[in-house]
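Note to self: the last two entries modelled the partners one at a time, which told us nothing about the interface. This time every component goes in together.
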Amino acid sequence: MQDLLHYEDFPEGLVVPFGAYYLSKEEVIAYAREWDPQPFHLDEEAARHSVLGGLAASGWQTSAILVKLAVEAYANRSAAMASNSMEEVKWLKPVYAGETLTGRGTVLSRRVSTKRPEMGILRFRFELLNAAGELKTEITGAQFMRVRHP
Amino acid sequence: MQDLLHYEDFPEGLVVPFGAYYLSKEEVIAYAREWDPQPFHLDEEAARHSVLGGLAASGWQTSAILVKLAVEAYANRSAAMASNSMEEVKWLKPVYAGETLTGRGTVLSRRVSTKRPEMGILRFRFELLNAAGELKTEITGAQFMRVRHP
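The predicted structure of the combined assembly is written out below.
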């Protein structure tokens, strides 16, 4: 366990850069078919006539991509203990098929649980951007993280 | 378009019952592998020793199940226009592999957009429960819906 990142390694203000994710048209449609089968996530023609203006991923898929990037960037090298809520999920702009996405996680604030001194609560903001730097999805929420020296 | 549900069909207080969803162990692991590859969502032994106490779905997968049930229950029979945010996502209890889930959507409040009178904004609470009636996941957020007679 010594090598894993712990609560102490996530000071307030820390920014963790994420890797990149290419989102293909096939993946947009496959996710939508399984989890969010609405016409504007499944069909290019229907999407063009929707408020999205083109084939765009379910907002929930863009959230899943952000989570995946966060897990790969730090959570899987850490003593993360899951989460019980997100306080806000914003889908600011449509994510179109064919975009390459990246992101970052910022520690907004943190505290040790009073009931469970071995557990820290990190309040994170996760941001998903495209290659042009447009902010697409923003999630704010808590992540529980083991304290190295409770 | 006449047959589709519109904004007018979703009065405040309306409760829409959802169908059922059986969540297998294989699906928990498959989702985790793709989107949230943390040990307690992938491995029964690791999960038993985690705060979750057993192999439990990613909270994001439980959210995706709730969205799928909502789409099947009403969104795909409606003039839904997507969404731009969720104001809260709560994972109140772990959802374990092998549970059968159901849910409901409640219209908390609604209004017509002042900028876009053809668009209604429904504020929904979505609740995911297991067969014993335990509330597992609760999502509150906006859904845009076309107004039949703007």
